[in-house]
Amino acid sequence: MLNLGILISGRGSNMESILKSIRKKKIPINPAVVISNKSDAKGLIIAKKLGINIEVVESKGFKNRWEYDKKIISTLSKYGVSQKNGLVCLAGFMRIISPQFVKKYKNRIINIHPAILPAFPGLNSQKQALEYGVKYSGCTVHFVDTGMDTGPIIIQAIVKIKEDDTESTLSKRILKEEHRIYPEAIDLVARKKIKVLGRKTIIS
Ligand code: GAR
Domain check: are 8 and 40 in the same one? Predict the structure, then answer.
């Protein structure tokens, strides 16, 4: 069974849905540790309540990404979240990961993004979607590569945009879908049902 490490920076609602789904839906993965780069992340309180190991690896003051990521890797390793036996989920982890970390954990890091990639990568995706005037948006779970939200896509969910949507109402509806598809994607990885072929993922 793979060991799961979840990286957060704030609220932690995706983390919560992942941890609860692992129990409820019997996803065959061991939730090993939640790591936050901020000591005041609300998600840490939720993780503690759910009985999972928590760690803070403070990112303030780190200029060099790889220097910081080495600390994350050593914390992950402490809990058995290795390249061979681990899966790392970015769940609202608001840092760009170094290429060295990505290469070391090749196809072992996944991320959730609140847009239908490749549209609206980066920050404030829901706002970007509304300003652009698209009729549909949604969310994407993808493997992390060295680009910004560019890795092979695992699952996407579509959300229809309403004429009176605000950033907040749209974000809420997208978040509901995020909470559904992220655990689904983890289940697929845990059951070794995904093959990565170049940019594509083949799901069996
Ligand atoms: C989620 O909407 C997630 O998709 C987004 O941050 C939010 C975190 O919420 N991530 C990104 O925008 C990454 N580019 P959460 O802490 O409640 O899971």
Answer: yes
Overall number of domains in the chain? 2
Nearest CA, atom 9, ligand 1:
92
181-204: per-residue pLDDT in tens? 999 999 999 999 999 999 999 999
Same domain, yes or no: 29 and 11: yes
What separation in Å is there between the alpha carbon of 113 and the centre of ligand 1? 7
Task: Residue 148: give the domain boundaries.
Answer: 111-204
113 an active-site residue? yes
Assess whether 16 and 100 both reside in one domain: yes
Which member of 68, 73, 89, 113 is catalytic? 113
Other C-beta atoms lying within 10 Å of the C-beta of residue 134 = 14
Q: What is the CATH number of the domain that holds 82?
A: 3.40.50.170
With a cut of 90, say whether residue 121 has pLDDT above it: yes
Closest CA to 102 of 91, 111, 92: 111
Residue 45, CB half-sphere, CA atoms under 13 Å: how many? Answer: 5
Distance, CA 185 to ligand 1 centroid (Å)? 16
Of all atoms in ligand 1, which is nearest to the CA of residue 112? 4
pLDDT value at 63 more than 90: no
What is the 91 CA–ligand 1 centroid distance (Å)? Answer: 6
**Is there a single domain that holds both residue 128 and residue 189?**
yes
Same domain, 101 and 116: no
Closest residue (by CA) to atom 5 of ligand 1? 92
